[in-house]
Amino acid sequence: MDHDLQEFAETGDIAKDVGQRIELVRHFASTGQLPFFQQIDSVDTPRVGIRGRQCVLLGSNSYIGLSTHPDVVAAAVEATNEFGTGTTGSRLLNGTYRLHVALEQQIAAWLGHEEALVFTTGYQTNVGTIQALLGDDCLAVVDSLAHASIRDGVRLSRAVEAKFEHNDAESLAATLRSHAGTRYHRILVIVDSLYSMEGSTAPLERIIDACKDAGALLMVDEAHGIGVFGPTGGGLTQRNEVAKDVDILMGSLSKAIGGLGGFITASRDFIDEIRLSARSFWFSTSATPGAMAAAATAIDIIRSDEGSRRRRRLERNSRLMRDLLAPLDVALQRPDDLGPDWSPIIPIRLSDEMRTALSWNQLRDAGVFVTPAIYPAVPMGEPILRVCMTSELSEDDVRRCADVLTAELSWALAAV
């Protein structure tokens, strides 16, 4: 590690001066220490090759290892050979292939909604859906830690925005009551099921009760919950048996499903409204044939006995890692007793961005690749190293990585 950078980290002053921050980023980049935009040269799940070094990947959203599953890869190759590498058009025009339609039907049947609509990316899914459903005469009520794509969608919709405290159903109810005297065309509450940085899960039952009391619609972002929770991998809404009480459900094709894209499931009326109004849907080239075929095969696996086995391995690895990292204060924040008592996302909180960057380099040098998160991915002044567990890690992998994390982070955590 660069000793000058460690001295900067120990003072903490570097994060307060913009000019110094720019110089520091440039220095990190020139010395190969910048923890972002790292080039991955090879993948042998769960290991990746980076700058000539093999690292165990603890930063992947492919929670059950489907991004490199041979059947998923074969489906992508077969569809590419049949249809080509791209659709060369939007869904509105020449970009709706039978693969898109079949996947939408498959998703709707799996998750118990009337219809589904596939977008090219998850970000576009949230932005387009929210922009389509809300206008300046509507109210959007969002969790304070909702994903950036949700917040950006609300801004683009020009709806009135209100926030409530993270995973606090009483705060949600109070926020809804504070707007009770105002006439809105539509009130939409938006939450994540599994929060990508916190690793926390939403208290869905209590949120649903608050929405019903206020006559509000509920949209749940299951990007990180799909494939992870539920008897057939249908997410936290399926696990908690509340899917019927969710008006709009968003999911990602690029997390546990292991590919690229996003989708919305809802009633036929809502899907038609989104299909005809979402600008990110209208004005984007549709998802590639390979991505659609890969997603369809991955969903079949998720719903199968193999998918159940992979979820059990993911839960085992997640519980074990959290137990082993107990000295680093990574206790799961649970909003109630109804949600799962485990999560594949484990945040390690550090005191400043410098320590976060330097700690990341130490871990990479020791053969462990985690993902750093700084503002705006997390609140200002609350950087984390995010550990993401997957089913493909062996128990030996988990134990060795936990030993490395505990040993290498002791100096950085001393100031927290």
UniProtKB/TrEMBL annotation:
Catalytic reaction equation(s): 6-carboxyhexanoyl-[ACP] + L-alanine + H(+) = (8S)-8-amino-7-oxononanoate + holo-[ACP] + CO2
Keyword S-adenosyl-L-methionine tagged: no
Cofactor or coenzyme needed: pyridoxal 5'-phosphate
Domain Aminotransferase class I/classII large: 54-404
Origin superkingdom: Bacteria
Keywords: Transferase
Enzyme class, UniProt record, top EC level: transferase
EC number(s) given by UniProt: 2.3.1.47
Protein name according to UniProt: 8-amino-7-oxononanoate synthase
Native species: Mycolicibacterium fluoranthenivorans
